[in-house]
Write a structure and sequence with these properties.
The complex is a heterodimer of chains A (about 260) and B (about 270).
Chain A lengths: L7 H10 L7 E4 L3 H11 L6 E4 L3 E2 L13 H5 L3 E2 L2 H10 L5 E4 L3 E2 L5 E2 L2 E3 L4 E4 L6 H7 L2 E5 L25 H4 L7 E5 L3 E5 L6 E6 L5 H6 L6 E8 L5 H19 L2
Parallel strand pairs in A: 1-2, 1-5, 5-10, 10-11, 13-14
Antiparallel strand pairs in A: 2-3, 3-4, 6-7, 8-9, 11-12, 12-13
Helix pairs in contact in A: 1-2, 2-8
Chain B lengths: L5 E4 L8 H9 L5 E5 L4 H8 L3 E6 L11 H9 L6 E4 L2 H12 L4 E4 L7 H4 L4 E5 L6 E6 L5 E10 L4 E3 L6 H7 L2 E10 L9 E3 L6 E4 L17 H11 L2 H13 L4 H10 L5
Parallel strand pairs in B: 1-2, 1-8, 2-3, 3-4, 8-10, 10-12
Antiparallel strand pairs in B: 5-7, 6-7, 8-9, 9-11
Helix pairs in contact in B: 1-2, 2-3, 4-6
The chains are: A alpha/beta (about 260), B alpha/beta (about 270).
Chain lengths: ~260, ~270
């Protein structure tokens, strides 16, 4: 294969897209999760079922949506349902295999903050808040979290816990009777962290090509465990990269046109 | 609608009742409790214009763009006035509306566990034990707004309304509210509604008003698309207090209705 150049964000998106099994029912948000799941649908997982919380089930947009309720998501869906129904029968009803979530902060047990930076009642930064994330984190079969690696994002202690990942670690999810398995991977622009099978503490298990392990450790706000069998993430294939770039170019054209 | 009312303008990215929000601002309503799962641009405008003293919500952002700057400044700096918040997750808000429509005191869901949300919104979230299985579940208090405001595609002359596309929680919020106001794209003789259509009958609705493009910059399926460029434009208008106030005065306060508002945007070369 010829040498290719790609950005760390492209690597992150492509690594996330590889988590989608063909046929999986995926709960998707806007931004990177939308790019990753649509890339999967256009490459190795044509039968993946994309579900946005606005109530679109089995949607096949030609461009990435700006909002979770863009008209094209509705036009190309197998079925539209109300908000009450999407959150009860489908999400809480444990019909979803895989949920994608972003975060402003995560901790070493992959708990998520998307609510505030600073004190809740006097925040330095007020973020949009929970949305569907707590229910997605609790009820999907598994969760993949994507966010860029830095010490402000990967923190020792969250300013606010918006959504539960592996809670206090160990079997704390099972004790809380959460239906889903919780986060199975955190994919950043530097590598992939997965929870230890027993303690559930996030462990660096894969480095993206060319990234030194020290860089990941330095950009993590807790003492990061590194898997002795650390792997290298396979670089993007030509197909993955060209399909992703086509998708993003189509999206940019569509959003600028209005 | 009166000062101090609890008001829910619903619409989940689709059919956002923006024209009604502008009219509330023009009428100078104050001290409202604003309720909405996804407060977006029109709530940002109402908060920045000083209409609201409390916000009940589950996701407050500019979808795909970033922050709602007027909402943020109200929470972070108390401008133009402090904004009390009752914050939830979407599943909880949906359950609260469904409970309100059902005249039940609370909704129930497997939610809020393992999060900090219940701690800060403890007046509207409690945990209970299932009487059958013993499972710990979240109980969320019903929402019963004084006024619900929604936008729909069509009404007939009797005041029955019909919607299609993404329906959000509009049916629930209409049935949960003491009064319901609906703006529509057009009033027709007959809805010709296919069986099982999303029709809300006139006798649970207080008033219907025809407001063409009344959901702009969101969309009305079958009439016009979502104006994604405008959502990005709002980020620049709303970032700064003075810019926001000048914009609101020029485009909203000095327009007598939503049609004039849209004309004032077009006069500035904005494609609406």
């Amino acid at each position: 294969m010829s040498e290719m150049t790609y950005t760390s964000d492209e690597m992150m998106t492509i690594a996330a897209s590889r988590m989608v099994r063909n046929g999986a029912a995926c709960f998707v948000g806007v931004g990177l999760p939308s790019a990753a799941t649509n890339l999967a649908r256009l490459t190795h997982a044509p039968d993946a079922v994309l579900i946005y919380e606005s109530g679109t089930i089995g949607t096949r947009p030609s461009v990435l949506p700006l909002s979770i309720g863009d008209d094209e998501l509705a036009d190309t869906a197998d079925v539209l349902v109300s908000l009450v129904e999407i959150f009860t029968y489908w999400l809480q009803g444990e019909r979803i295999d895989l949920g994608f979530l972003g975060a402003a902060q995560i901790d070493k047990f992959a708990n998520i903050n998307s609510t505030v930076i600073g004190d809740y009642r006097k925040p330095s930064t007020r973020l949009p808040g929970a949305g569907g994330a707590p229910a997605i984190a609790a009820s999907c079969g598994e969760i993949v979290i994507t966010l860029r690696h830095n010490k402000r994002a990967m923190v020792q202690k969250l300013d606010f816990r918006t959504s539960g990942g592996h809670l206090e670690g160990g079997d704390s999810r099972a004790r809380m009777r959460f239906p889903g398995r919780g986060p199975t991977a955190v994919i950043s622009d530097l590598g992939i962290m997965t929870p230890d099978p027993v303690t559930k503490e996030l462990t660096l298990t894969s480095l993206h090509p060319g990234v030194p392990v020290e860089k990941v450790v330095e950009n993590t706000g807790w003492p990061l465990r590194v898997d002795p069998n650390l792997k290298t993430t396979p670089p993007p294939t030509e197909t993955e990269l060209s399909v992703l770039r086509d998708l993003q170019e189509r999206t940019a054209r569509a959003h600028a046109g209005k | 609608m009166h000062d101090g009312d609890q008001v829910a303008l619903e619409g989940f990215t689709h059919l956002a009742p923006c024209a009604s929000g502008h009219e509330i601002i023009r009428q100078g309503r104050r001290n409202l409790t604003l309720i909405r799962m996804t407060p977006d641009i029109v709530y940002d405008q109402m908060i920045g214009a000083g209409c609201a003293s409390k916000l009940v919500f589950s996701w407050g952002g500019n979808p795909g763009v970033g922050s709602l700057h007027r909402f943020r400044e109200a929470v972070e700096k108390g401008w133009p006035q402090p904004l009390e918040i009752d914050e939830h997750e979407h599943a909880g808000m949906a359950a609260r509306y469904a409970a309100g429509a059902s005249h039940l005191p609370f909704g129930i869901l497997r939610g809020y566990l393992g999060t900090d949300l219940a701690q800060y919104s403890s007046s509207s979230v409690k945990f209970i034990d299932c009487p059958f299985t013993g499972e710990k579940l979240a109980a969320v208090s019903a929402i019963r707004p004084d006024v619900a405001v929604i936008h729909a595609q069509k009404a007939d002359r009797r005041g029955n309304i019909m919607m299609w596309g993404l329906l959000g929680a509009q049916k629930e919020v209409v049935l949960a509210s003491k009064r319901a106001i609906v703006t529509v794209e057009e009033i027709v003789e007959d809805l010709h509604a296919p069986m099982n259509s999303a029709v809300i009958p006139s006798w649970v609705i207080s008033a219907v008003c025809e407001v063409k493009r009344g959901a702009f910059p969101s969309y009305a399926h079958g009439y016009y698309g979502r104006n994604n460029a405008y959502y990005k434009y709002w980020d620049t208008v709303s970032r700064d207090r003075a810019t926001f106030q000048a914009w609101m005065d020029k485009h909203v306060m000095q327009s007598k209705d939503f049609a004039e508002f849209l004309q004032s945007l077009e006069a500035e070369g904005l494609h609406v």
